[in-house]
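Morning!

This is the sequence you dropped in the shared folder:
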Amino acid sequence: MKLLLDTHIWLWTWHDVSRLGKRVVRELKNPENELWLSPISTWEALVLHAKGRIRLPKDINNWIVEATSPLIEAPVTHEIALASWQLPLSHNDPADRFLAATAQVLELTLVTADAKLLGLGNISTLANR
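The structure's back. Tokens below.
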């Protein structure tokens, strides 16, 4: 499977593994699966850190390199931007829109605990349960 990690799933793999469901842990550890991350998740983590909602390590630059290097970087394209605004989401969270659209356009499975993103149209999802 090609798994796109939602921002919180990615952060939990580094800071709170106990919040990950058993199936998600199994799939993240499965060497046959590809693990993808969007730069939108990096941006979202930095925004949350700046707002004081999460705390990243002091050396953010090195942490970002370490936390993203084992993952495949998903591109941010014009096609994904357009798809993000065509999604039937009831909210306008830009990160959610970009992540869902990335999963849709690149045919990835979005790993998330966000109920608003689970079962969203034709986007493949893996619930954190």
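Headline: Strands lie at 2-5, 34-37, 72-73, 109-112, 125-127.

More detail when I'm at my desk.
O.
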